[in-house]
Amino acid sequence: MSRKKNPIKASEIRIEPKKPPKKAKVVIAWDDYFGNGDLEDWQRLMRDLGFQQEFPSKQRCRRTLRKVWVNIPDFLRAVASKQPVYRFSTQHELSEYTLKNKKLFPKDQIPDGSPLRKLLAHIRFPKIQESVVTRDGIAQTQQRKVQKNAVAQDEIDAMIERLGGVRI
Fold first, then answer.
1. Distance between CA 150 and CA 77 in Å, rounded?
2. Quick check: 96 and 106 in contact, CB under 8 A?
3. Which superkingdom does the taxonomy of this entry point to (predicted)?
4. Which residue, among 99, 94, 89, has the nearest Cα to 131 in the 3D structure?
5. How many Å apart are CA 23 and CA 89, to the nearest integer?
6. pLDDT in tens, 78-120
7. Domain limits for position 137
8. Crossing angle of helices 58-65/39-48, nearest 10°?
9. Counting Cβ atoms within 10 Å, is residue 42 exposed (0-12), middle (13-18) or buried (19+)?
10. Full-prediction pTM beyond 0.70?
11. In-domain check, residue 12
């Protein structure tokens, strides 16, 4: 004996609109801090990062930010409490600190054109060769000899192990 299933009519199907993802507190804090992204906002960001020189354009700010390593939640906290901002000397240091303390910024919530695109480091897989901006704003290049991808992977595995993580 075969049973017929009641077919569902197309008119009975309801599709709920997707709710936009909730903004994390750190994203809201960044939006409050950075404002509309005018040149004055960019210049304030550069001053808050500890740069003394004047930046005449957003492009000049963007170029400098490529080699600035700060933890975004710590940066916002330091600015709010009028404390100096700690800048890491390498992307590796920032990566290790960020993963250890779980102070991540949700990458998917960064708007286009935001300086966060330049400030956001490769936390999970930092680059082996990188330039460093010293505290006085002078760029210096640090190079490590990497013989094969295996060396880079060994460094990543060692960092994950030091942090008590598990490699997937």
1. 38
2. no
3. Eukaryota
4. 89
5. 30
6. 999 999 999 998 888 988 898 899 888 888 887 777 888 777 7
7. 23-162
8. 30
9. buried
10. no
11. no
